[in-house]
Design a protein that fits this description.
By secondary structure, the protein is of the alpha/beta class. Helices cover about 40% and strands about 20% of the residues. Strands 4-3-2-1-5-6-8-7 form an 8-stranded mixed β-sheet, sandwiched between helices.
């Protein structure tokens, strides 16, 4: 059994060190590690590297779930690489390992990851695993889905969207709020 709770972080593979998205992920990784979480990611570059690096710099433990499909090795900041054969096996292992999720800015791959986690929570396939989106990048998508499910609502800085099974997606303005939210939710679930 694992000693620490694990937060899986999803995000783009494109940002490089020094880019705002990379540095935001690095800060998120540090904050999660300081709150006692192990950090899991897809294990490659960009946000995945940034969050792993931040966690390691703060003394945390990191996991990278990679796939043969991509023909790459895990980034240098990953302590434990979990190698899967296919893309879909990788996605479901990232979900399985997690006690909670943080979703950073990303492309279609990150969109799929967010959608899968959200739907698995909505259908109670995985229960009690908090998910937070960091920043406002995903706002238009979350707003559109929420409108279909619940109708329009007033906007606030931090928001929670719920479907049939309660509040499922929390939107945090920055990495500190995201880490605080996950710490609060996962502490309550111990």
């Amino acid at each position: 059994m694992r000693a620490k709770r694990i937060v899986t972080v999803f995000g783009s593979s494109r940002p490089k060190e020094g880019d705002a998205d990379y540095e935001e992920a690095r800060e998120l990784g540090k904050l999660l590690a300081k709150r006692g979480f192990a950090v899991c990611s897809g294990g490659f570059g960009g946000v995945m590297e940034g969050v792993s690096r931040g966690a390691k710099e703060a003394g945390g433990k990191t996991y990278g779930v990679t796939a043969e499909f991509f023909k790459r090795k895990a980034n240098a900041w990953v302590d434990t690489e979990v190698r899967m054969e296919t893309w879909d096996e990788r996605l479901f292992e990232l979900v399985r390992l997690a006690d909670g999720f943080a979703v950073c800015k990303g492309g279609t791959g990150t969109l799929v990851e967010l959608a899968v986690v959200w739907e698995m929570l909505n259908k109670s396939v995985i229960a009690g695993k908090p998910v937070v989106v960091v920043g406002d990048f995903w706002q238009p998508i979350l707003d559109r889905v929420r409108e279909v499910e619940q109708g329009p609502r007033p906007r606030t800085e931090d928001r929670v969207w719920g479907e049939a099974n309660g509040n499922l997606v929390y939107s945090a303005a920055n990495p500190a709020r995201a880490a605080d939210y996950l710490a609060e939710k996962l502490k309550a679930g111990k």
